Predict the structure.
Amino acid sequence: MERRDFIKTGLVTAAAPTLILADIETIKRSRKPMAISTWNHGINANEEAMKVLLSEGSALDAVEAGVKISEADPAIQSVGFGGRPDGDGHVTLDASIMDSKGNAGSVAYLQNIKHPVSVARKVMEETDHVMLVGNGAKNFAISHGFKEENLLTEESRTSWLKWKKNRRKKDDFGPNDDHDTISLLAQDLEGNIAGACTTSGLAFKIPGRVGDSPIIGAGLYVDNEIGAAGATGRGEEVIKVAGSFLVVELMRQGYTPQDACKEALGRTVSRHDGNPKFQIAYIALRKDGAIGAAAIRKGFKYALSSDNQNKLYSVKGIIN
Ligand code: GLY
């Protein structure tokens, strides 16, 4: 028998049924809903997620509602509507979502649909697939009632034109990949955990490029028994270490959420001679409500909403 099964059965056989019921009620009542998300815009996303959680909604509904705030905000040029386009001037979106039962859905290289996270949820709930990409994802979205719209704002078009004018022959995107993907993890009153991650990806990327955000285990991972993790930053490097999965597995091994995030980043740092020229950050939420957040470099912030507070926290980089 697995340890987990043992714990479950152990609880059932260890006490009289009335006591068990009372205990479960106490646990439920003492649960504190919470949301943690990446970057400054996580504050507004958390606020929306908490509305859902405090009205006894599910963690899944909360994470979707939360990140939709960022997706709809044209001022956030790294997510959804108003996201910076690829090298050809097309806004292409990646998103993923996971529920507490381990179900997952994602979309990648999706164009002209404002809420990729909701399409990802439809993939999860209405198909037996996990991931749809490109035109397939768009046609699926349209057939499920999503409307096609132009997502390229004048501001993002202007930055694209400027980039085109000044671009180097070999675009390695360098250290300036300041794209603020949102990952949001939430726990509801039942103690269940869900997560969502959504982005327009690297600005002016090579057309067709897909980052970590829609890759289950890279940009996002949820295991309701252990906890959840989400990523932001250089997606290619997150994919190479299956970053969010790694963070959750490290928590399973007993690392605190904070140390799990740091250890996962350490794997990437050591692959780059201790001095990578890019940013990655992870956030983590453990089943007991403990949280962690860490980044390679300074500048990363996360938003934490719990105990009637919704605050932004700065994180020191693990290398500077
Ligand atoms: N982390 C988002 C991306 O690399 O696309």
Observations:
- The two ends are 46 Å apart (CA to CA).
- Residues 1-22 have pLDDT under 50 and may be disordered.
